[in-house]
Structures are given as structure tokens and as C-alpha cells.
What does this fold into?
Amino acid sequence: MIGTLYFLALLGSTLAWGRVDVWSERASRNGTGDGGSCTCEAFLPSTTFPIKDLIVLEETAGELSHRLELEIVKLEEFEMKMTAYANRIAQLTVKVSLMEKNPDDYNDADLEEIKVEIKQVEALIEELQLSIKTSATVYESLRVQITAMVSTLDQLEKTYDKSLVLATRREYTEIQLQLEECEKRHQEIFNPNIGSCAHSCIIKVSKPIVIQLNTHLSSGYIYGGWGKDSKPIPERESMYWYSGYSSATMRDIRFYTDYKNLILRTPFMHHNLASGWTGTGNNFIIRENCLYYQINSPFGLAKLNFTTVRYESRVIAGASSSFSYSNSPNQNFDFSADETGLYVTYAKDETRGKMVIARINEASFGIEEEWLTSVYKPGVSNAFMVCGVFYAVKTVDIHTEAIFYMYDTKTKQESFGNVLFERFQDKYSNLDYNPKDQKLYMYNDGYYVSYHLWFNQTAPAIEQPAVEQNKITKDTNQ
It folds into this structure.
């Protein structure tokens, strides 16, 4: 009887999530009298559904949702405080101006009162700055926790009945969307200069923000890219795109209406490239509903307009197929878009592998201008453009990248720096800047990863020992 009860208890804890394949009852008597034992043997499935883990996930989801609500309330408080502080600063400015114009109308007591008010405002602003930094840290913590939970759910979906985890996934999706909206509001309040080039350079890159594994649910899809349209057409402002492969050949691309559908892996369009128009390499981008990418036959640039479904190609005289980035093959052409337009970078045999920056005329798909840099392409892991400035990145160690080189196409001067940032995984195949949100988008060993950027907003252009580079000849194949 004792053995039977033990079996029923064991079975009750597992039967809801797994079936009992074989079981048998074996009774035996040992010794004399009525003494004996009853033993039940149950051969349970090798794996059972981890209901305890799911309960923990659900409880954590509730906790994260509550924490996020508190941060949203704080954002509203920040907005009210900033408005109040701005009004106080404006009033102080008027008082100081009057004192400067009519110094004889005021005494030392009046001056001391103004000094006290200024110090009070300074203290309030410092307190607000500290609160903002604290909230940013909380956002990062929430992001890390949510990413870990979504990864766990992905694994559960692949291993167990999806219907059992679908409700929890929906809950986490909603939390991710709330966090995305909260970060967007935070960025709008404290970084209102998106679209402006009134800064000198990048001074900091955030920690990697990991969205999730790609839509194929496979880390084997190490080649590809993801991001947003850098110049979206109307009603496509929230659109995301993704294209990923297990080789460096580009065959198709997926589009998602918004962040939610990207997370849910629900594209509204899956476009296969036409025969003869497959691409290669990974540094392709979407701009104004057009795909810009590299082709090998003929070796050059390709453009696909998704509005007209029209393909175009362009050969650049002298561009070489011998030079690629240090950690990814076949990336001979790298497309970039910023606040000033569309660019492509490459190397030539005549420049001995030094990178060339070229501005693309989007209407004619021709090359308008070219600039020669002094940076050797095989020594670069990737590159991007911001406000007409070319930024080259190199690998420092297994976890770290560094922005080490800049070339300003306006002044035709180059400079060197050392802005470090972390990778989520070992290698990445695509890194691009998007001027619509001032973020870097990285495709990192199959994962969607992004970074916030900080710019030197107040200092003038940094005067450094610079080498002026001559603009080189336009492409004759325009």
C-alpha cells in the first residue's frame, strides 16, 4: 500500500505534462507473517514539462511589468520637473539681465539672493541628472532580464507543446513593447537632437541591447543583417527588416510592420530575390523602400526598388574583390546611410586596399564624389557613416570592438580615437547606423543587437593632428 501511494504521488506530479509509457506492479513477501512490501515501477518520459520554471517566469513577468510601470511614472515626473526647472532658469536669466543693465538698482543682498537661487537650480539639475542615469540603468537591467526570459521561452517552444507557453510569451511580448515605448519616450525627452548634426563626434556607445535570436530560431544563421529603413516612406516609419543565411549568399529579405511583429517573427512580406539577382556579403541596407546590396555578376552594386519591383546594377571602375573586412568574407562593398545621404565604401587595387568612401546619387544610382582614406580595409571589422563622417571599427579582443578612425568628408580630414564597445557574441557580419533613431544595428552571430550612441553635443569640432586627403576621381560609370 505504501508503495502504491508513493507511485500515485510521483505520477500525479508528472502526469499533467508527460505520459507514462510503461508501468507494472510487483509484489513480494519476505520473511514470515504478514510483513511484506509492495513495489510499483513507473517508466516515465525522459523529459517532463517544467511547470515550476513556467510559474517562475509568469511571476517574474508580473514583477517586471510592475517595475516598468514605476519607471513610466518616473518619466512623467521627469518631464514635469524639467518644465519647472526651465521656467526657473528663464526667470533667473531675466533677473540677471536686469541686474547687468541696471547695477545701481541692486545691492549686495539682492546679488546674494540671486546666487542662492542659481545654486538651488544647479542642485536640482544635478539631482535630476542622477535620477535619469538611475532610470537608464534600470532600463538596461529590465532589458537583460526580459531577453533572458524570452530565450527561455524560445527553448520551451522548441521542446514542448507551444500552446502551453503561448500565453506567457504574449505577456513577455507586451512587456518588451512597453519597454521599447518607454525607451523611446526617454530618448525623446533627453536626446531631442535626433536628426541634427550639431555635434563633433561619437564619445560613447551603450552596452549591447539584445532583442532576440533571428526569425529562423537558429544561431547557425550567422550571415545577414537587420534594422530599420533609414529614410522610410509614409506609413512605413515603424517597419523593421531582416535577412539572414548560413552562407554569405543573399537570397531573400523579410519585412515586419513594427517592433511587435519583429518579436513575434510575423513578417508582412517575404521577398525572394529574382533569378540572377542574388546578392553576396552582408552590408546591405534599406533606404526609402529600396534594398542596396552587392552582386558578383557583374561585380558591383545592386538596387531593388520594392515600390516598383525594379532592379538596377552599377559597376564601379577599379573597385576590387580582393579586400574584405577582417572577420567576414565577401564584404567588398559596404552601404551606409546617414543624415547627409547614401554612401558605399570599398577598396581598390590601385589604393592597395585603402578604403574609399563614395556618395551615391539615389535618383540616378551613380557615384557623385569619392574620398580616399588611409585605413587598410582588411584591418577593419566594419564601418558606418554619421553626419558625413566615416567611422571605422576594429576588433580589440573576443568581447570588445573599438571605433578607432574617423574621416570627415566635409573637411577632408582624418583623426584617430578609441571608443570601446562590447559585442554580445563572438563575431558579427553587419553594423550600420540609422539616422532616424541614432542607433547602431548589429547582426551578431544570429542575434538582433542594437546600441545607443552619445555625441559630443557642446564642444566644437575637435582639433587634432590631421592629414588632409585629396578627393579622388569620380566614377566614370555613373
Summary: The longest strand covers residues 366-376. The domain at 53-187 is CATH 1.20.58 (Methane Monooxygenase Hydroxylase; Chain G, domain 1). The mean pLDDT is 79.
